[in-house]
Batch of 4 targets.
Target 1
Amino acid sequence: LIEAHFRGQILMQTITEEGEVIKHHQREIKVSSQIDEEEGDAEDYGLFLLPVQVSHTIDRDSPLYSLTPVDLLASRMEFIFTMEAVVEPSGNTTQAITSFLPDEILWGCRFASCVEFEEDEG
């Protein structure tokens, strides 16, 4: 796959300033395949040479900024992530989509490495 792009959205209930309840409001969240994007915009693309980790930085602009783990579990949010890329041999576009509910989010955990390198002995 080449030219892979990632998107993240949160499906949640929101209340407008006028008091209208919108049950299935979709809000785009910034995702990045880079560890730290403080110096620029988040990069929403990646190259599939090795496994790619896509993350969302929780900062003041994030809809998750004021939530505690307990608040998140009590919410009715759904996190939806898509990846769209070009299949190199055919030039066709492919898309993958997945979603997570609050009880599927693990706080304070890290991914175990799934890549090993062997040193050449000769």
Target 2
Amino acid sequence: MFGPDICGSGIKRVHVIFNNKGENLLIDKTIRCEDDKFTHVYTLIVNPDNTYEVRIDGEKKQSGNMKDDWNFELPKEIQDPDASKPEDWVDAPMMDDPEDKNQRDGMISQKQSWTTMP
């Protein structure tokens, strides 16, 4: 489906909708349509290299790559609604490892033992 959609004073946009596997996919970008009282010519050009162009009265209003501006492909990772973090999960960017021995403490104790030597 392609063409202007003027619903009252709130919605004034050009719809560019493709049907893919039984699902209607609306363009991700907003293309403003002409809303005066004159007749306008709306043109959709789809090229073999998956690029498109929307023209109103011969003037280019929007163009781009179809893969970028429509959700034809499913995301590579699908969010699992049942997935959750473990109860002991820490979101801090840095955290202490309770099993790690602090090397700095060992260095300080060695330094202190050097200074206390007779």
Target 3
Amino acid sequence: LSYLLQNTGYDQATVQAWYQVFTKTCKSETMTIQQFVHLFKTFFRYKIGYQFCEHVFKTFNTSKSGFMTFVEFLMAAHVMDKGSPEEKLRWTFKLYDVNEDGRLTLDEVNQVFQTIFTLRSTARIKATELFNRINIDGRKALTEDQFVENCTEYGNMELRNI
């Protein structure tokens, strides 16, 4: 509890409220991907595909165990809710770095966009537009630091459009 209070900025009542949501959803100390998808879709009511939720789960599951702990869940909620622009950009990079090699490519951005958009042609166009906007130096791939730096240089790009 003290770790979460120190690292999230949430008060004890908020942490306990999130814990109740977490335990009501998963009935144990860890959350499966299916439980996460259900919870994620409850909070984000617009149509989201299972594959996109799976990408989000993998990004939040920092232990790579295949099960999300309450600490992982709340730390992720904190970054999404109250994280600094840099923290949000770093999380976004990890979301798009599908193969987890520390480099972001147009193909990876396209893969994630295809889980969001139902039309593949729309996904490819949007992914290319985004990658070209953040790929200031014309690289074939961006590291996390380059991604954050380029997004920041671009002029505080709106994170919800990424």
Target 4
Amino acid sequence: MDKTNRQSLVISLCGLPARGKTYLSRTLNRYLVWLGYNARVFNIGHYRRSIVGTSTCKADFFDPSNEEANAARELCAKEAFEDLINFLKTGGNVAIFDGTNTTAKRRMNIRKQLSQELPEAELIWLESICNDDVVIEDNIKKAKLNSPDYAGVDPEQAATDFRRRIENYQRVYETIDSKIEGDDISYIKIIDIGRQILMRNINGFLPCKIVSFLMNLHVEDAPLYLVRAGECTNTRENRIGGDTDLTEEGKQYAEMLKTFFEEEKKRGDLRDFKPSQIKIFTSTMVRANSTVERMKQDFQLFHMKNLDEINVGLCDGMTHEQVRREYPLPENMTKHDLILHQFPRGESYADLIERLEPVIHELQRSKTPVIVVSHHSVLKCLAAYFAKHEIDEIPNLEFPLNCIVKMRPDVYHRNETRYILDPITGQSTIQETQQKDLLVKDFRLL
């Protein structure tokens, strides 16, 4: 899990506005951080908002003939890149430079500066190209109108202004061309949100892993449900591990779960999808299968060994008190130590994250709703990915019994609704609804 000694990598975005660059950069960053890399996004737009504010940054500010504005934008890009270099020099693994970088001259200057400051660092360009007017317009409405640039602005006025911004960039935009920028340039081109992907000079473990991840991305908006399997005998007896079946309360919870998703299909976020479009991913363990038994006729069901609970090794079947007594944790363990700590002859959270990586690819690839029915440790790892928690926080995350978490992530926010079903009373409640800002912080403030 500790990947801090690996070679530095810079992923630099380029492309016109409203082509999904910020979505790509933030989603990729979330994935890399979850895998244990010290990765960070440096968004030029965020620096621009910090330095010159938002009130002056309307379409005319991006006019290539506006020399004063061009100078201000160059200053913002310069500061962002300097912070990027500092990040890599002080232990960062992967830096993502999120900006338009629309001209060959700008890109060659970035390449030159990086080779001077960090000659050992690898640079890969990630260009997002989209010629589908429907997708572009949808991106303007969904993402850009929620951007801090247009806070408090009438949506129609904001959309009109942003279209003018795009026109200004189109006047100078040059796609990446190896004939101009050199045969040794490395790039990934994503065309029309993944319908076609072009690559050049992509080699090595991490770059190839990144390509594999990017191939699974899309911009469809579908909910994800993380569902904990019902109470089993071992859980009732405060024992870890094992593969026991549901208790009576667990069976009541499974009944309530079926009713919950029937309501979601009628009036909730599943109402616009056919049953055949909705998938259930569940583990191979007995309690998980018993939990979904009543729903398997309604949805597509997929069993995944990767979703099985963490392997507790020699602690299987022990009570929590027995584990603490016979296998006490070393003193003065840090949060990161807890991620790496393995059960004797079992797994650690780091092992579990590695096991869950193919599941993340499948979830990112799905364009329709997915219901994941799994177990405590597994769901904490998945929740950490989608809710953008630091991996060191995973052991302390809460995912109680009888809990459903519905997530609808987007570029700027993460919408989460948590439901608690009470099998004793038969009542269900919304425990909390959150909307958390996912804006990348200024590196200088961290």
